[in-house]
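Case study 2.
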Amino acid sequence: MPEESKIQSQVLMFVGTHCQHCAPVLTSLSELVKEGVIDSLEVVNVEKRPEVAAQKGVQSVPWLQIGWFELEGVRTKTELKRWVENTSTAEGISEYYAEILSQGRVKQCLTFLRRYPETMQSILHLMSDPNEKINVRLGVGVIMEEYAASSDFEKHVPQLVEFLKHEDSRIRQDTCHYLSLTRRPELIKTIEPLLDDLNGDVREEAKDAIESLHESVKD
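Prediction:
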């Protein structure tokens, strides 16, 4: 898990002098401090400390840093408690990635992945969930375009191969495409059975993936 999971109960909050949504969030956080859910709470006024806000990339308030999670907007006390409790869990990391990808914040996701490459496992979890939102699936696609051919991703290839057997045809189709991005021609034989898949889109993607991997040998 990310290093910051060790300090999951430390919270940093940015507020604005005229922010009407900041007060209820601050109240909820203060209550969680009193209840012992949060160890410490630091509050920064963006008007008074704009340089600190800029350093953190704060563009709107309320803005929170809980462990390694960076959250924007209004959050209920129940939500805040859940984020604090889940900073050190795989489920919490997957939920966080799903949230920022659903908002189209792919660059932020890539930044965190570079910082915490071990959390790629959570990206693969999202990729294999047929119920994920379209924005999340599209975001995962961008990430795979970035990472599939890298040495860091090599250890995740066996898990990706397992998704070729997924019951959902979209997952099998996506998997064929992502395996083609690895530029590993030894995977051709692994993909070949999908040429006889019951789903036409999967068969077509498998064909394209195999052709792409053959081409990678020539490059």
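The mean pLDDT is 93.
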